[in-house]
Design brief:
By secondary structure, this protein is mostly helical. It has one domain. Helices cover about 75% and strands about 0% of the residues. It is built from 20 helices and no strands.
Length: about 450
C-alpha cells in the first residue's frame, strides 16, 4: 500500500456517479437508436467515447487537487494488469485476423462438414461453432463464419432456422466462454489475478455438462436432415488453431502463445497460398490490432475510472450494499459472495450489452467482493465469464444476436428461445453456486 492511499476508505455512494453517467450515456444511446430502428443500436456510440464524460466527472469530483485526480486516473489506467490485458487483446486480434485471412476458418468448417453424419446437423453446427470459437476466442467471428452455413442447412432440410442459428450462437458462446484467448477470459482472469488454465479448470466443470445436455436436445430435434456437400479444404490451415489450443494449456506465457500462433499462421499462409504475401500478412496483423483497439482502450479508461471510484469509497459502498443484500438469502458467506459477483456482472452486461466490457466494468468490484467473502478467485473469474456469456447470448440487443439474425433474416426476440445452451448453462451455473462445485484440490489448481 502506498503512502498516499488511506488505510480505510470511507464508503460514499456519490463516488459511483461517474459510473452511472457512463452507463446512462451508453445505455441511453442504445435505447434511442433501437427506437429509431438503427442497426447495431447499442454500438452506435463507441464505449470509449461514452467513458470520457465519466472520466472528466470523476477527476472533477476527486477530493483533492485536480492534478492529483489526474494522477490517480493515470495510475489506475497504467496498472500492470491492464497493460498485460491490452497486449493480449492486440495479439489475440492479430491471430484471429491472420488465421481468418489465410482461410483457417473456412477449412475448419469444411472439416466438420466432411466428418459429421448429416442426421446430426444441429449437433454438428454446435460443435463446429464451439471449436472455432474456442480456437479463435471470439463469438462474433464464429457467428459470422458459421451462421450463413447454418441458414443454408435450413434451406435444404426441414429444420427451423431458429434451431440452426440458435445452435451456432450457443456453440459460439460456449467456445468464447472457455477459450484461452477470448477477451472475456482474459478480462476475467486479469481482473481476479488468476492463471488462465486455473480458471479453465473450474469453468470446464460447469460449461461442458451444459454443452452435453444441449447436444442431447439438438440430437432430439435434428430429424430428416439431408447430406450437405462439402468443399475441399487444406488441413494445414487448421494447424494454427490446433497449436494455439494446446499451447494455451502449457505453462508458456499467453503473450508467447499468441505470438507463436501469429507466426505459424503467417508462415503457413506464405508457404501454402501463392496469393498471400508479406504485405497481406502485415495488413492482416494490423487489422487485428484495429479490431481490438476499442475494447483495449476501454479497459484502460475503465481501469482508471475504477481506481478513482475505489479511492473515493464508491466500490466500498457498493460492496456494503451487496453484503446487506446477500445476507437476506441466508445461504452462507461464500455462496452469498458468489451470488453478489454474479449479480454484478449480470447487471453490468444488461446495461452495456457487451460481455467483455461488463467484466472489465465489474472486475475491480468483483475482486473486492471475492476478498471480503472468501470466494476462491478462480471460481469468481469463472462465474464472471459464465454469467456474462449467458446474458450476452440472450439479450436481443447484443451484437451476437443482432449479427446472427441479420444473416438469417429473423427477429432477435424470436431467436432467444432457440439458444438452448445459454439457458442450460444458467441452470448449471446456479447449481454450481448452490452445491459449491467443482471443489478442486489446491494442487489441481
Amino acid at each position: 500500500m502506498t503512502s498516499d492511499t488511506p488505510a480505510k476508505v470511507q464508503a460514499r455512494a456519490f463516488a459511483l456517479l461517474p459510473l452511472i453517467v457512463f452507463l446512462a450515456i451508453f445505455l441511453g444511446s442504445g435505447i434511442y437508436h433501437s427506437l429509431i430502428g438503427a442497426e447495431l443500436a447499442f454500438y452506435q456510440v463507441k464505449a470509449p467515447v461514452a467513458a470520457l464524460p465519466a472520466i472528466i466527472l470523476a477527476v472533477l469530483l476527486y477530493r483533492g487537487k485536480l492534478n492529483a485526480g489526474i494522477d490517480a486516473f493515470l495510475k489506475g489506467a497504467s496498472h500492470p494488469n491492464l497493460i498485460l490485458m491490452f497486449m493480449v487483446f492486440m495479439l489475440a486480434g492479430a491471430f484471429a485476423s491472420v488465421s481468418s485471412a489465410i482461410g483457417s476458418v473456412d477449412a475448419t468448417v469444411q472439416l466438420g462438414l466432411s466428418i459429421i453424419p448429416p442426421e446430426f446437423v444441429l449437433p454438428m453446427l454446435f460443435l463446429i461453432s464451439a471449436f472455432i470459437a474456442t480456437a479463435m476466442g471470439t463469438s462474433m467471428g464464429t457467428i459470422a463464419a458459421c451462421a450463413p452455413i447454418a441458414f443454408g442447412f435450413t434451406q435444404a432440410t426441414d429444420i427451423e432456422p431458429v434451431y440452426a442459428i440458435g445452435a451456432v450462437v450457443g456453440g459460439a458462446m460456449f467456445g468464447d466462454n472457455l477459450s484461452m484467448i477470448s477477451d472475456t477470459t482474459i478480462a476475467a482472469t486479469s481482473s481476479l489475478k488468476v492463471q488462465l488454465r486455473d480458471k479453465f479448470r473450474v469453468n470446464v466443470w460447469i460449461a461442458v455438462p451444459a454443452a452435453v445436455v444441449s447436444l442431447m436436445i439438438y440430437v432430439l430435434i435434428s430429424h430428416g436432415s439431408q447430406a450437405i456437400a462439402f468443399q475441399d479444404y487444406d488441413p494445414w490451415l487448421i494447424l494454427p488453431y490446433i497449436a494455439v489450443f494446446f499451447l494455451a494449456f502449457s505453462r508458456l506465457h499467453v503473450l508467447a502463445v499468441l505470438t507463436i500462433g501469429i507466426a505459424l499462421a503467417g508462415i503457413i499462409g506464405l508457404a501454402d497460398r501463392a496469393d498471400f504475401t508479406l504485405l497481406q500478412l502485415n495488413s492482416a496483423i494490423y487489422d487485428g490490432f484495429v479490431g481490438m483497439f476499442e475494447v483495449a482502450l476501454l479497459s484502460m479508461f475503465l481501469g482508471g475510472l475504477s481506481a478513482i471510484m475505489q479511492r473515493e469509497g464508491g466500490l466500498e459502498w457498493l460492496i456494503q450494499r451487496i453484503y446487506r443484500l446477500t445476507r437476506l438469502f441466508r445461504v452462507g458467506r461464500q455462496r452469498a459472495g458468489e451470488l453478489g459477483i454474479s449479480f454484478l456482472v449480470i447487471f453490468s452486461n444488461l446495461f452495456v450489452a457487451n460481455n467483455t466490457v461488463a467484466i472489465i466494468l465489474s472486475g475491480d468490484m468483483a475482486r473486492e467482493v471475492a476478498k471480503e467473502y472468501g470466494v476462491d478467485p478462480k471460481r469468481a473469474a469463472a462465474l464472471m465469464d459464465i454469467f456474462s456469456c449467458i446474458v450476452q447470448g440472450l439479450i436481443p440487443y447484443g451484437a451476437q444476436l443482432l449479427l446472427a439474425c441479420s444473416i438469417a433474416k429473423m427477429s432477435p426476440v424470436e431467436l432467444i428461445g432457440g439458444i438452448y445452451y445459454c439457458w442450460v448453462l444458467a441452470v448449471f451455473a446456479v447449481l454450481s453456486i448452490i452445491f459449491r462445485y467443482p471443489q478442486l484440490k489446491p494442487k489441481e489448481l
